[in-house]
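batch_manifest entry 22 of 60
target: Metallo-beta-lactamase domain-containing protein
source organism: Cryptococcus amylolentus CBS 6039
requested by: lab member K.T.
priority: normal
notes from requester: please return tokens only, no post-processing; we will run our own comparison against the previous entry in this batch. if the run fails, retry once and flag.
--- input ---
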Amino acid sequence: MPLLRPSRLLRHSIRPLSTTAAAQANVIVGASEVKGQRLKGSHWANETGTKFRNPWSSFKMPNTWQLITSGYELATSASSDLTLKDAKNLIPHTTPTFGASLPARDLKVTWLGHACAYVELPAEEGKDRGVRVLFDPVLGGGMAFLGMGPKRESLSPCEIEDIPEIDMIAISHNHYDHLDIPTLTTLLQTQKSKHGSQPSLFIPLNNRHTVSGLPLADERIFELDWWEGRDFEVEGVGRARLVCAPSQHFSARYPWDRNRALWASWALQELPSSPNRNPAKLWFAGDTGYCVMSQDIHAGSHPTSTNPNAPEQDVCPAFKEIGEKLGPFTVGLIPIGAYHPREVMSPLHVAPVDSVAIMKDTKCAQAIGIHWGTFRMTAESFTEPPEKLREAVKEAGLEEDIFTVYKLGESRAHKVEQPGDR
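--- output ---
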């Protein structure tokens, strides 16, 4: 299997960060390669890199009976959840400005619901904007195979046509609440008609077949394994690095293709032109679990707690590895919802207490809670995740604003500390 053959990007305003126009810079972070070939990683479940697994003792896939019972609990709890019935009013929202009035030299993030986030890196001196990346865009009304599945309960904060020009799209995995073909199709068409160009698309390994029908040239699609990345220069804007990193999850678009495509998190880094400037770094978790738990517990009894009575339970080691290899990060986008019942969901979806632990493991200076308040996917109250997050942050002894949530559609600026700021 070739290691990301050099190719020319067709987008007129983005070119490879290299000495020649046709070459493409690869970034390998702790990954193994021999003569341009990928070597089998511990997360590969076969020899060809077309089936995958979670290679840690922190993961255990729920059995069929657990999934059936959790589905029943979801159905019964949804009928009595008053917050769900008034979700459009109870989830705080605002019309997105995409950070237009925020300081251009800061890292700017806009939350567009669920795991969808619009990110703009700091602008170079004298530039109007920085490199822009859109993560897991899903702006439709529902998601599932054959239309069966949760519908969008809260407002969609904007129309797809309202999204400003973007340079890259990054997808964490192929579940319908993270990879939405209708959203991507409209987005790509709109970007081309409004701006005369299209963004590049980054996907984890073996997801290309899912996006092959999009109105996007194959040369603009980059399929990466864990610890592989790309350096880019957006002409007239700036430079950035995007690295595919691990997460603890699974994949499936259909009942018969489980784990045939890789899942991932993404590390985004500014590559400033000045060697004296500290780069902005953002980590997007996508969708992930942390450890196998049998009950809903909080920081005092979590496996990462210093409490001597805390359970001895393996936690996913990948997050500390991400922090060591790619961190520290200015900000992390970390899921906080879709966690109940814990004995079923904990290997796949974090609860807020796990999210706080992951923030520490990955060395995020601040974090934003995502993956909540949009689709009713599990049995906890629709508005519960932010409440549990506040509890977990307090129990961990952290300042309240270290890990918080945005309003739907809200943008905030995150300052990147520079030499001499203190």
